[in-house]
Amino acid sequence: MNRLKLFLPLAFFAALAIFLMRGLTLDPNAMPSALLDKTWPVFSLPTIGSTGIVTEKHLHGQKALVNIWATWCVTCRVEHPFLMQLQQQGVTIYGVNYKDKGDEAEQWLREKGNPYRFTIVDADGKLGIDLGVFGAPETYFIDSQGIIRYKHVGDLNERVWNDKLKAVWDQL
């Protein structure tokens, strides 16, 4: 019995190693959203370049992408030209400017082009918290009733769109 106790640390270490090795095989982008198949969270926020207020009801009417972005986000800079391409192909895109300065965001859109139908200003990040956002960029696919059907973490680019996301978009 005393000899068996000598192997307990080894058994514990082996179990821990197996647990950690399993984690290495998981896809970090495969993070399910608790909001899938639920309506977009209730909000009432301003938009960039407007004195008006929009609510979740403004997202209803047609399928769309809702892109979480910020000027401080390096990946958002890389993603932006592809969003412009999608918009030119007729994809409806709404923006959520996340924890950013409005004047910098407005300048960004003037300089780089504006792929968004409108951009919601989420300066304090409350909408982001309600969505479960943990970074930018993130993109949500919503149907015409404003129900979240898919969440993509990371940048949208041509490869990701063609290999994975276009099929999701076409199914909406």
Task: Write up this protein.
- There is one protein chain.
- The strands form two sheets. The chain has a five-stranded mixed sheet with strand order 5-4-3-6-7.
- The chain has one domain (33-171): Glutaredoxin.
- By secondary structure, it is of the alpha/beta class.
- The chain is 40% helix and 19% strand.
- The relative contact order is 0.19.
Counted by DSSP, the helix tally is 6
Radius of gyration: 21 Å
Order of SSEs, N→C?
HHEEEHEHEHEEH
Strand order of the largest sheet: 5-4-3-6-7
Number of DSSP strand runs: 7
Any descriptors?
172 residues, alpha/beta, Glutaredoxin, 5-stranded mixed sheet, two-stranded antiparallel ribbon
Give the secondary structure arrangement, pairings included.
Layout: H1 2-6, H2 8-24, E1 44-46, E2 53-55, E3 64-69, H3 74-88, E4 93-98, H4 102-112, E5 119-122, H5 126-131, E6 138-142, E7 148-153, H6 158-171
Parallel strand pairs: 3-4, 4-5
Antiparallel strand pairs: 1-2, 3-6, 6-7
Structure, briefly:
This protein is of the alpha/beta class and 172 residues long.
